[in-house]
Write a structure and sequence with these properties.
The structure is a single chain. The chain is built from five helices and three strands, in the order H-E-E-E-H-H-H-H. The protein is mainly α. The chain folds into two domains: about 10-55, no CATH class; about 55-145, no CATH class. The protein has a three-stranded antiparallel β-sheet with strand order 1-2-3. The longest helix is centred in the C-terminal third of the chain and has 22 residues, at about 105-125. It starts with a helix and ends in a 20-residue tail after the last helix.
Length: about 160
Amino acid sequence: MTKASISLQELRRKIYRKEKTKVVNLREGGCFSFLGFDFRLNKNREGKNYVSKTPRKKKRQEIGKRVKAALKAIWNKPLNEAMQAVNSVIRGWVNYFRIGNSNSTFNNVRDYIEKKVRKFVMRRKKLKGFGGKKWSREEIYQKWGLYNEYRITYIRPKATPAR
């Protein structure tokens, strides 16, 4: 055997670990996670199968913890600096998970972040509650400047590929 083929075999052993590799049949209700997404087979309105890509539950929980930590770290800063810190965390997460079937997840994350930001402002003003009736969504997004670009991006080719 040549030196190149030996190193290729070693590389394959390092990449394909049997304890970490599994075969999943999506047609039998299987699901697998890869790069922060859960992949599973669903049916659309016409009854056709498609593979849905949604953010993992662990990643949804992580964004909540990161927003909470960002708000805690900037407790004594002005509100616009607080919103900038929170926006940078949200923007990165949303841009990563913007592909796929993330719309319902984005709605849940947006509601959670709104709740955390309202509570943050209420605590700074030494008031009780979450501030749900005190400030509208329009005020939070327009006046305070909270990030609001929770849109899915669909990638469509500009031209059909040649055959």
